[in-house]
Amino acid sequence: MNKIKYKDKLKVLHIASELTPIAKAGGLGDVVGALPKELAREFQIENRVIMPKYRSIDTGKFPAELIIKDIKIKMPYGRWQKISVWKTFVPETIVPVYLIDCPAFFPGEGVYDHRIKNLHQTFPFFYLSWIALNLLKSFDWFPDVIHCHDGMIGMIPKWLKTIYIKDPFYSKIASVFTIHNLNHQPIIKLSEIKYLGLKRQAFKKLRSFLKRDDINISAEAIDNADMINTVSPTYAREIMTKKYGAGLHRLLKENKKRFTGILNGIDYSNFDPRTNDDTPVKYWIDTLDKKNENKLFLQKRFGLTQSPDLPLICAVTRLTPQKGLDLIGDVLKELVNMGAQFIILGSGSEKIEKIFIKAEKEYPKSVAAEMKFDANLAQTIYAGADMLLMPSRFEPCGLSQIIAMRFGTIPIVRKTGGLADTVRDGYTGFVFRHYDKNAFLWAIRRAVDVYYNQKDYWRRMQIRAMKKDFSWKASAKKYLWAYKKAIRNHREYLRAENDQDKKS
Ligand code: ADP
Questions:
Q1: Average pLDDT over residues 177-185
Q2: Which of 113, 151, 301, 445 is paired with 216 by a 20 to 30 Å CA distance?
């Protein structure tokens, strides 16, 4: 365990649904697993994390200690709820992670398998947030900033500026709201407000602004947070436009002064082909030939034709329309005709699964589909593949392409969001602009052409991609800036409120 001493006074609480490797469903988990670690290591920030204790968490691998047993917390709807708290750490750090044990709100197995009867599916996370706020007094620990990860945790900024604003313990806490994916907006019915401890009146402002009858918690978070960010500069610009703003572009534009884009990094200690446990034959820039042995391993594992010369293309992805999987489905035939092979590891929509299961049956020696979430297999695939496809319709940041680059696997991406910020056409990858089969196919053809016919240039591209540094250091510094700005904005807000009180 790293010995880190906290010298800076800044204290940050992260509230989140995922934290890699303890519980992961996508990129959000990677961010929450890496950012607190980096903030502690580089800037001596005292971070803590609060998340649910899912049944799927392997407490053998991540030993947790029961620190609070069966305390009762008064919920916003007035009833008392019994919970317990377990403590573990972000692996290899002294950053504490408090796991909230509450089967009444988190009855399912995995990260997003929970539902409270008759309530919107996000309520377990609203309640997690409420419990987190209430626990701070029991911990006797006061954070300067609460970092809220995505719309699920969007009630924190609202509660801090309403129910808790007059409580001296909470009134000074600033909030930062990170939009990991703007399309994930919890929109609840008016009739559900009472379960949040607030009256209709408290939501009046945005109801007239957004002209809708229901309540959008992401919008409330944008309106109330002291600082808002999303996970890449391009996506930040994009979501202020109608095309990408998912209904909130005007609100974001209006709050532009508090809104910024901070590119995600990756934790290179997890994704290093020299040391990665899931890479059968370790390699680096000076031993890149060995990557082919990983390719042969994959070809064998998936029953594809075994040959180091065939270009092996992969996708590691959630199966949602966002990821442009229909475009991949559309080009599979051409891809096979080019002599390329394709492996997809994906989980999510059954309808999308079918596209790839069908293709696997049609081209058993060239296409393989593994329809599940498997973090270990994902890394074996990054290690053995030559190229990665990510033709997303939109992409807040995207981590798969960054991980792939570290493994010398050349990304073929659409120029949107974080993909536009991380992949350079003809330099570290291949980029196309329009969401269109032919544009995508053209990019794939260019890649396959370089792979076959310009082997030296291909190698140079791989080396450039592997050397790119998207580590958390630079991004963590920007978050530190955002936290400080949130604290300043919050002080200003309190001053303005005070002046208002005096006047009235
Ligand atoms: P998103 O957060 O939208 O899912 P990102 O590219 O930001 O997309 O992050 C995806 C992360 O989840 C990467 O670490 C990727 O390797 C991982 N991942 C996605 N799908 C799978 C899967 N089926 N099995 C294992 N890992 C996956």
A1: 97
A2: 113
> Other C-beta atoms within 10 Å of 333: how many?
13
State the pairing for strand pair 80-89/96-101. Answer: antiparallel
CB–CB of 345/319 below 8 Å?
no
Ligand 1 centre from 374 Cα, in Å? 10
Cα(285)–Cα(466) distance, integer angstroms: 7
Which residues are near ligand 1 (CB < 6 Å)?
26-28, 30, 316-318, 345-347, 373-375, 378, 397-400, 403
pTM: 0.94
For 59, the token pair is 């407490």
Q: Which of 215, 137, 182 lies closest to 394 in space, CA to CA? A: 182
* Residue pointed to by tokens 């313990």: 169
Minimal-distance CA residue to ligand 1 atom 2: 27
SS3 per residue for 479-494 = HHHHHHHHHHHHHHHH
Report the percentage of the chain scoring pLDDT > 90: 93
Ligand 1 atom with least separation from CA of 264: 7
Determine the distance separating the centroid of ligand 1 and the alpha carbon of 187, expressed in angstroms: 25
* SS3 assignment, position 373: coil
Phi/psi-derived region of residue 348, left when phi > 0, alpha when psi is between -120 and 50, beta in every other case: left
Ligand 1 atom nearest residue 379's Cα: 16
Name which of 129-138, 173-182, 201-210, 226-235 the model is least confident about.
201-210
Other CB atoms within 10 A of residue 372 CB: 9
402 CA closest ligand 1 atom index: 6
For residue 187, give Cα distances in angstroms to 105, 123, 152, 212, 360.
Answer: 19, 11, 10, 10, 38
Ligand 1 atom closest to residue 370's alpha carbon, by position in its atom list: 23
From 454, 384, 443, select the one nearest 412 (Cα to Cα).
443
| Residues 239, 165: Cα–Cα separation, whole Å | 30
- Check residue 170 and report its DSSP letter: T
Cα(347) to centroid(ligand 1), Å: 9
Contact 388, 316 (CB under 8 A): yes
Rounded to whole angstroms, the maximal C-alpha distance in the chain is 79
Calpha distance 130→400 (Å, rounded): 33
One-letter amino acid at 136 equals: L
Instruction: Look at residue 270 and tell me whether its pLDDT is greater than 90.
Output: no
Answer whether 179's CB lies under 8 Å from 230's CB.
yes
- Band the pLDDT of 26: cuts 50, 70, 90: confident
Token digits of residue 292:
């082919």
Judge whether 408 and 465 are in contact, CB under 8 Å.
Answer: yes
